[in-house]
Amino acid sequence: MDNSNSRQKLEALRLPAAEFAAALADIDHLAELKLALRCLAMLQQKEAPYRYLCYDELLADEVLMRALGTQDALVDALQRGISRGMLLEAWVDPNGCLRRLFAWNDADGQAWQRQILAGEWQPATADEIEVLPPRPSLYALYEDNLGVLTPMIAEAIRDAESAYPREWVEDAMRYAVQRNARNWRYVHKVLENWQQEGRSREADSGGSQKRQYQKGKWKDFIDS
């Protein structure tokens, strides 16, 4: 029999050298080792920027369950992997259905977990979520949209981030850009006005509000 014709091609499993070597040195349970190898193989098949596995996906995997035998063995191996720091865990509730997710504990997995814990995700399908990329810092937003970031402006942004919700600061910068008022003093006055009078009147008033500011108390804060 020609072995070259009958031999199945096996896809190479790329192991994250540093992280896997550290985990392998401590793994003393066969089920946990089987779980680690299977998780790495399944994660490599993912194409999303953030790769993760859900509990139901692991439970439905025939290769993994044939290796472990029972659902209790899967639960135990997962807990061992999480306790050892090999796997990261997160819970989400897309469409009102609580789901348990896992990622490998590397730099990408840690970024994935931070984004989920920060609420930076949204439902993608009935079974999947989309983990959103990290938002740029407020300093980067200022430099990209308003102007040069000086030490004084950086300190002012830091103070504003402590005093107002981050979303307010982001929206105030966008508001300034829309009205071609590209300076921090205008952004700060917008934030003060939102805090004192509420956001709806100013945010919805459009270009006519800019003209009002040019004639009124904010005229000194608008670039000509």
What is the CATH T-level topology of the largest domain? Arc Repressor Mutant, subunit A
Q: What is the count of β-strands?
A: 5
Q: Superfamily at the CATH H level of the largest domain?
A: Winged helix-like DNA-binding domain superfamily/Winged helix DNA-binding domain
Q: Helical percent range?
A: 55-70%
Mean pLDDT: 80
Order of helices and strands: HHHEHHHEEHEEHHHHHH
How would a crystallographer describe the biggest sheet?
Answer: 3 strands, antiparallel
Number of helices: 13
What's the Cα radius of gyration? 26 Å
Low-confidence stretches: 1-10, 204-224
Can you tell me the overall shape? elongated
User: How many structural units, i.e. domains?
Assistant: 2
Structural class: mainly alpha
Instruction: Classify the beta-strand content into a percent band.
Output: 5-15%
Write out the strand line-up for the largest beta sheet, numbering strands in chain order.
1-3-2
- Quickly give the CATH architecture of the largest domain: Orthogonal Bundle
What's the arrangement of secondary structure elements?
Elements: H1 3-6, H2 17-26, H3 30-44, E1 53-54, H4 55-59, H5 62-68, H6 71-84, E2 87-92, E3 99-104, H7 107-117, E4 121-123, E5 129-131, H8 138-145, H9 151-163, H10 166-178, H11 184-197, H12 200-203, H13 206-215
Antiparallel strand pairs: 1-3, 2-3, 4-5
Helix pairs in contact: 3-5, 3-6, 8-10, 10-11
